[in-house]
Amino acid sequence: MIRSVSLIPYRDLFVHLRLHFQILLSPVYLWGWLLAGGSLGWDQCLGYIALHVFLYGGATAFNSYYDRDTGPVGGLLHPPPVSRYLLPFSLACKLIGFFIACTVSPGFALAYIVFAALSVAYSHPSIRLKSSPWSSTTAIGLGQGLVVFLAGWLAERGDLSGVISIRGTIGAMTAIFIILGLYPLTQIYQIEEDTKRGDRTLAVAIGPAKCFIWAISLQTIGGSLLAYVLAKSYSGWYAGIALAGTALQAILLTYWSRRFDERAIISNYKQVMRLSAVTGISLTVYLLWLIAIH
Predict the structure, then answer these.
(1) Which helix (H) or strand (E) holds 31?
(2) In the chain, count of helices (H) and strands (E)?
(3) Which residues, in sequence order, are bridge partners of residue 73?
(4) Whole-angstrom Cα distance, residue 77 to residue 27?
(5) Which end of the chain is flanked by fewer CB atoms within 10 Å, N or C?
């Protein structure tokens, strides 16, 4: 028995959660939290942990179990081997997160369940939304965009009161556009591996050149909506910061698109990770600052 337990690859299991990458997805939740009121409390913090540690981590590990990538994936240049323990480990993480979600509010727990269900449908072979460009894109927009924004709102207010308003509606659209703008870039270095596996992802379907057009267009729309809500809700100065960041991102993406080489998989991976890190961390810090001062 002792020998069997020692063979469980604990380190690899936790690496597959890619928690450092999940932190970069923080802005959507923080945005919902801010627009719903932005107060500081245990519910909001527990909601963040439930989503970004246990649900995002568990969903990523669940996806890794079925994908069995050997090349770069989001947050991992060299993914560790997939063992038979990864599937129950991923489900256990999601279950722990659900118990935490239940302490936040019933509405938050429901949002958690919806996202968890979408993550299963995205990866499991019996449904595999990931294998189709438009079903996968819809799942990401609804899950990581809309549902996580609503989860941030629910963690703050406990219900969806006020979300059907200009502030709430445009706030949700902002989250969807920003997430969908980033989505194909996270696949642009996996085109060859996804094609071999039979997954016709968005990047596979439209190709690298259109991925950049897609990313620049949607990120610009999302950034503009972000600035509009900040200007209406807080100050034009805050909106100006958002617009400056959006413009800088568009310039960097345009510069990269003109020098993009599909064969340079490792270089492309590192470029996407740098861009994701700069964007995710900058927006996370900015939104946390707004939450702290309002």
Answers:
(1) helix 26-35
(2) 15, 0
(3) 76
(4) 24
(5) N
Q: Are 204 and 252 in contact (CB under 8 A)?
A: no
Task: Give the number of residues written for the chain.
Answer: 294
> Structure tokens of 23?
């932190």
Q: Distance between CA 217 and CA 191 in Å, rounded?
A: 21
pLDDT tens-digit profile of 24-68?
Answer: 999 999 999 999 999 989 999 999 999 999 999 999 999 999 999
Q: Token pair of 126, please?
A: 């019996």
State phi, psi for 85 to the nearest 5 degrees. -80, -15
Phi, psi of 73 (to 5 degrees): -130, 170
- Please give the torsion angle defined by the CA atoms of residues 25, 27, 30 and 35, in that order, rounded to the nearest 10 degrees: -140
CA 277-250-207 angle, to 5 degrees, is 85
For 131, the 3-state DSSP assignment is helix
b/e map of 50-70 (b: 16 or more CB within 10 Å)?
bbbbbbbbbbbbbbbbbbebe
Q: Are 185 and 272 in contact (CB under 8 A)?
A: yes
One-letter amino acid identity for 55?
A: L
pTM over 0.90: yes
pLDDT level of residue 8 (50, 70, 90 thresholds): confident
DSSP state of 76: B
Residue-wise pLDDT tens digits, 177-219: 999 999 999 899 988 888 888 889 999 999 999 999 999 999 9
3-state DSSP helix/strand/coil % of the chain, to nearest 5: 80, 0, 20
> What angle is formed at CA 259 by the lines to CA 257 and CA 262, rounded to 5 degrees?
80
Q: Considering only CA atoms, which of 231, 254, 251 is closest in space to residue 241?
A: 231
In DSSP terms, 76 is beta-bridged to 73
Element (H, E) at 57: helix 56-67
